[in-house]
Write a structure and sequence with these properties.
The complex is a heterotrimer of chains A (about 240), B (about 260) and C (about 240).
Chain A: H1 7-13, H2 17-50, H3 56-68, H4 71-83, H5 87-96, H6 104-128, H7 132-140, H8 145-156, H9 158-173, H10 177-183, H11 192-201, H12 205-228
Chain B: H1 13-39, H2 42-79, H3 85-97, H4 100-111, H5 116-125, H6 133-157, H7 161-169, H8 174-185, H9 187-203, H10 206-212, H11 222-228, H12 234-257
Helix pairs in contact in B: 1-2, 1-12, 2-6, 2-9, 2-12, 3-6, 4-5, 4-6, 4-10, 6-9, 6-10, 7-8, 9-12, 11-12
Chain C: E1 5-13, E2 16-24, E3 28-32, H1 39-47, E4 54-59, E5 62-66, E6 71-72, E7 80-83, H2 95-102, H3 109-122, H4 138-151, E8 156-160, H5 168-185, E9 189-193, H6 196-202, E10 205-210, E11 213-219
Parallel strand pairs in C: 3-9, 3-10, 7-8, 8-9
Antiparallel strand pairs in C: 1-2, 1-4, 4-5, 5-6, 10-11
The chains are: A mainly alpha (about 240), B mainly alpha (about 260), C alpha/beta (about 240).
Chain lengths: ~240, ~260, ~240
């Protein structure tokens, strides 16, 4: 995880390794998680916004559950499904050679689950909010549905979609409970929120102060960016 | 051209409230019942009921506090015309993505008697705010607040201003316009915010762990208790309660969000 | 000669009840009547954006809607062009892109853009090619919308109150343009308006609407027959 940037650079910049290491773990995991969440979440948001099939509400409720569940519940299910005996664990072992609990990938999966609802809800709201006449005009022009989606609907909904992806990224960065249960405080896979917890519980106080401040700054920056994107409210 | 709204989704207002109330009661009731069933014996039930009732003791006041604060500040942000409105909302929204450990850290700094700020606060309030239920309530309130705020602001802004103008021409003072016109018209969005705020209050973990201390019997809420009982049978009962509550909450939010065209 | 459009549809929405039937042989038919009479609804039914409760729609002899036989050709496949009241151009693309998207024929992107450009010239908007719709005045926007509606060589062009959002000076200017461009392109058209002057100036025939029904129909006297130069005679809009 530290291979991204050599420690000597960090020392000249004044960033100590006990900040950079967990921060880079969090950033990398959140980045990977957000890519998956964005692709699947936007697609699902489109289907939920446009589809007219029974059970639509149930599906959206299901995928929104991580927002309403304590992270310990999410963590419990991830831990037992990914690590405990069952088809998912078998699939992991055949794909990766080992179960994904207590690994970096496990962190990514926990973050995907926790941040997914934000992307889906924001995307669905944004896509549903596009003036239907634009699509009607495009249909009259003879464009097939997939081209309408790519050329008309999604571009017009881009602000809300970007806000959803940004919120998902922020949520992934800020995850604590589920991440901790799935991956523990394995040194190779310690996120910055877990590092803060450790610093408050055991470590030097000034470390806690800095770690908290860094996370506060990042969260504020993300939310500020989202607020500039305008009014998108999925709840 | 307006799309036709499929009739299956449009329940009347009162019916929706009834559905939600029934769902909530069912969720709680089922939780109790299944806890009994899974628990099997009084001993097990004793283990689950403690954290369960404690969680209620924490989450319900927290939701109330967050709701009142959220509606009030949402109203101010919706109606006010001062610079920095969006900045305030951004700050108020921080707990949504801020890691709970950061919230816990700052709350500890602000509340625990050992720190300068915390010492002052403790003296003013008169008793300790950490490592007891009060601390847990504060954590849950912080977790729930941003949802109440954003939902309240959005739905208050969505109220047709002409209806409020009409009320003013009828002679109603501003505060009555708010109570009689604005808030009732915004009640769906506000209710949705309260629902999801309640779910967040129920499920708060990281900050509660740090500020409450996870003291068995005193500050061990359900979400904390699950970790402690990880390998024991009563864990299933706790899970079921929480999952049912979560499903109820999101279903409620979904129903409230069904737009009337 | 096959009629350009044959409509016989009924549709109920809430309290409103539409039940109309008419045929347009060629030229420009105007649906005229007060607001809420069902004119725009008829257009949506012809376009296939909404389905009727009962009835049929035939464009150039081709059945695109037949409730009894459960036929409903999707809007995309109807070879129509539509011009909306406020243009509804894609705000994130240039005017030229907007028109080029509608062009169905043409080998490659260059060809399509060239065709689009020629249509913009015909409506007097060639200077607007690289502008964004948001920066256009109402009149400019509707010119671009007209170009877009015709650029796809449709079998039928539908105009829904294309000038209602404009002020009267601009409206007068564009009335002539609409008639001239549509007539010279040879495409049959159905135009919806509640403005009597507009109906007289643009239409060859006026179909009068009131409260969901057709209550009258008459031809408009013209001093000279419309000249047909330019693209294609009406029959070429027939799809395979």
């Amino acid at each position: 995880m530290t291979a991204l940037v050599p420690h000597s650079w960090l020392n000249t910049l004044g960033i100590p390794p006990w900040v950079w290491d967990p921060l880079s773990v969090s950033l990398r995991a959140a980045f990977e998680a957000t890519i998956v969440v964005a692709v699947v979440g936007i697609a699902l948001g489109y289907v939920l916004a446009k589809g007219r099939f029974p059970g639509r509400g149930a599906i959206e409720t299901f995928f929104s559950l991580p927002m309403a569940l304590p992270p310990t519940v999410v963590g419990y299910y991830l831990l037992t499904r990914l690590g405990g005996p069952g088809p998912i664990r078998n699939a992991e072992v055949s794909l990766f050679g080992h179960p994904l609990t207590f690994t970096f990938t496990g962190i990514v999966i926990a973050q995907i689950v926790e941040s997914f609802p934000y992307c889906v809800r924001f995307s669905r709201a944004a896509i549903a909010g596009v003036d239907p006449r634009f699509e009607q005009a495009a249909r009259a022009m003879g464009l097939p549905q997939w081209r309408i989606a790519l050329l008309v609907t999604l571009p017009l909904a881009r602000r809300g979609i970007v806000a959803g992806v940004a919120m998902a990224f922020g949520r992934a960065l800020g995850d604590f409970g589920a991440t901790m249960i799935v991956s523990g405080s394995v040194p190779m896979a310690t996120t910055i929120s877990i590092a803060l917890y450790n610093a408050v519980a055991y470590g030097p106080h000034h470390q806690a102060m800095v770690l908290a401040l860094v996370q506060l700054g990042v969260a504020f920056a993300i939310l500020f960016g989202v607020s500039r994107l305008g009014k998108v409210r999925p709840w | 051209m307006k799309r036709k709204v499929s009739p299956a989704w449009s329940l009347g207002g009162k019916q929706k409230v009834a559905v939600i109330v029934v769902a909530v009661l069912a969720g709680f009731g089922l939780g109790f019942e299944v806890a009994h069933l899974f628990g099997g014996s009084i001993a097990y039930w004793g283990v689950v009921s403690g954290p369960f009732l404690l969680t209620l003791r924490v989450a319900l006041p927290a939701t109330l506090l967050a709701g009142v604060a959220g509606i009030a500040s949402g109203y101010v942000l919706a109606k006010g015309r001062f610079p920095g409105r969006n900045l305030l909302e951004t700050v108020g929204s921080l707990p949504i993505i801020l890691p709970p450990t950061v919230i816990g850290y700052y709350l500890l700094e602000a509340l625990s008697p050992g720190t300068p700020v915390g010492g002052f606060v403790t003296r003013v309030v008169g008793h300790e705010l950490v490592y007891n239920v009060t601390g847990c309530i504060i954590c849950s309130t912080v977790a729930a607040y941003p949802f109440c705020l954003r939902a309240a602001r959005a739905s208050i802004e969505g109220v047709d201003p002409r209806i409020e103008q009409a009320a003013r021409t009828m002679g109603l003072p501003s505060w009555r316009v708010a109570l009689v016109v604005t808030l009732p018209l915004a009640r769906r969005g506000i209710a949705a915010g309260l629902t999801i705020g309640c779910a967040r209050a129920l499920g708060e973990y990281g900050a509660t762990l740090m500020v409450g201390g996870d003291i068995n019997g005193k500050t061990r809420t359900l979400s904390l208790a699950i970790l402690d009982s990880f390998t024991t049978p009563e864990r299933n009962a706790m899970l079921l309660i929480l999952v049912l509550m979560g499903i109820t909450a999101m279903t409620g939010v979904g129903l409230l969000g069904r737009t009337r065209t | 000669m096959t009629a350009a459009l044959e409509v016989a549809v009924a549709r109920r929405i809430g309290e409103f009840d539409l039940d109309v039937a008419f045929t347009v042989e060629s030229g420009i038919a105007v649906l005229f009547g007060p607001s809420g009479a069902g004119k725009s609804l008829t257009l949506s039914l012809i376009a296939g954006l909404i389905r009727p409760d009962t009835g049929t729609v035939l464009i150039n002899g081709r059945t695109v809607t037949d409730c009894a036989r459960r036929i409903h050709v999707s809007t995309q496949d109807r070879r129509i062009g539509m011009v909306f009241q406020d243009g509804v151009l894609l705000p994130h693309r240039s005017v030229l892109d907007n028109v080029a998207l509608a062009v169905r024929q043409g080998g490659g992107r260059r060809e399509r853009r060239a065709i689009a450009r020629s249509w913009l010239e015909r409506v007097g908007a060639e200077g607007l090619a690289d502008r964004r719709p948001g920066s256009l005045s109402g009149g400019q926007r509707q010119r671009a919308a007209l170009a877009r509606g015709l650029a796809g060589e449709p079998a039928l062009v539908l105009l829904d109150e294309p000038l209602s959002a404009l002020d009267s000076a601009v409206r007068a200017e564009l009335r002539q343009l609409i008639r001239e461009v549509i007539v010279s392109s040879g495409v049959p058209a159905v135009l919806v308006t509640h403005d009597a002057e507009e109906a007289e100036e643009i239409g060859d025939e006026i179909i009068v609407y009131d409260d969901g029904r057709v209550v009258g129909r008459r031809s408009v006297e013209r001093p000279t027959p419309p000249r047909t130069r330019g693209n294609a005679p009406p029959e070429s809009g027939v799809s395979p």
